[in-house]
Amino acid sequence: MKSLDALRESHLTSIAAASSHDELEVARLAAFGRKSGEISQRLSQLGKMDPEQRREIAPRLNHIKNELQQAISAKKSEIEEREIEEQIGQEWTDITLPGRYRAEGTIHPVSQVTEEVIAIFADLGFEVAEGPQIESDWYNFDALNIPPEHPARQEHDTFFIQNSDSDTGQPNVLRTHTSPVQIRAMNAAKPPMRIIAPGRVYRCDYDQTHTPMFHQIEGLAIDTDISMAHLKWTLEEFCCAFFEVEKAELRFRASHFPFTEPSAEVDLRCSWEQGRLKVGEGSDWLEILGSGMVHPNVLKAGGIDPDNWQGFAFGIGIDRLAMLKYGIPDLRAFFESDIRWLRHYGFRPLDVPSLHGGLSR
Ligand code: DAH
């Protein structure tokens, strides 16, 4: 049997040699393991010794036991400390690096409002439709019941394009409104249908409230028994959602558009308090859009039989909506690409319009 000194020596050496928790555990079990630990075994033998022998061995053995336990816990702390040091060494941060990059730009109010309008009409079952910005004279005018001699043509301040349409030989134009998308949508699908068409339009005009390029959104709903009442309800729903108010009162003013019969311009009840618009109350009226029941000639041009189908249509100026909702006084600044203006009126990229979130928050 090993002498107590040799026992002490060999266990202290293997504890000192351990360089990980696993190795330390092996060394600990060699000494104190319940069955095969050498110190445990010696301790259990004490009971069988005669009293004289025990009196001599027991204190020495206990002393060795304490010494080894202290050595184990000291080694354990040493290994833990070293592990922390290693971890810190790997997870360092260079505080001299520049801060995280912040995007310079923001979402343009026109984009924001377009998304808002689309979200509202999508909720009412309207699909988004598109058409080209360079449009044939036929789609922009004739198909919309505006024949060449019609005075409405003059009102549109049209930009003509030198290359004419290769099929018809007619001049091409920069579309003066989004209404031609009505015809394209009718050609592309069968009724019943509900579409909205947002996009750029062009007219040769420039002052505080007019720019040569601006944005409209067209709406069209066709079914067998659609009336002005459906139009009014739809527009009221839209105004409540868009201006984020409980109640919106609309006034239909008789008007004339060649592509609708009857036609109405729609005003919204509002008040101006210290230059800020309040919708739904007050004694002012704000003109916000043109609308009406689709003219039978327009349905025909779209390939739809006006004896079986009818519908309503409307056209809204998106830029004007943005000016009203967000208190922007001058339309021209929308297109001057001044980053300071955008920082003031723009929207953070994560402010995605949604009906449940409140559109603009
Ligand atoms: N296209 C018209 C414009 O640019 C707006 C408009 C009025 C569109 C009445 C419509 C409508 O669809 O029914 O002035």
Low-confidence runs (pLDDT<50, min 5 residues)? none
Assign a percent range to the helix content: 25-40%
Order of helices and strands: HHHHHEEHHEEHEEHEEEEHEHH
Q: Give the N-to-C terminal Cα separation.
A: 83 Å
- What small-molecule ligands were found? 3,4-dihydroxyphenylalanine
Silhouette: rod-shaped
**Number of beta strands:** 11
Pairing-aware structural class of the strands and helices? alpha+beta
Radius of gyration: 41 Å
The proportion of residues in beta strands is: 15-25%
Mean pLDDT figure:
91
Number of helices in the DSSP assignment: 12
Biggest sheet, open or closed, and with what strands and sense? 8 strands, mixed
Key terms:
361 residues; alpha+beta; eight-stranded mixed sheet; three-stranded antiparallel sheet; 12 helices; binds 3,4-dihydroxyphenylalanine
Walk me through what this model shows.
The chain is an alpha+beta fold and 361 residues long. It is built from twelve helices and eleven strands. Strands 1, 5, 6, 7, 8, 9, 10 and 11 form an eight-stranded mixed beta sheet that branches. A three-stranded antiparallel beta sheet has the order 2-4-3. The structure holds 3,4-dihydroxyphenylalanine (DAH). Residues 177, 179, 218, 257, 260, 290-292, 313-315 line the site of 3,4-dihydroxyphenylalanine.
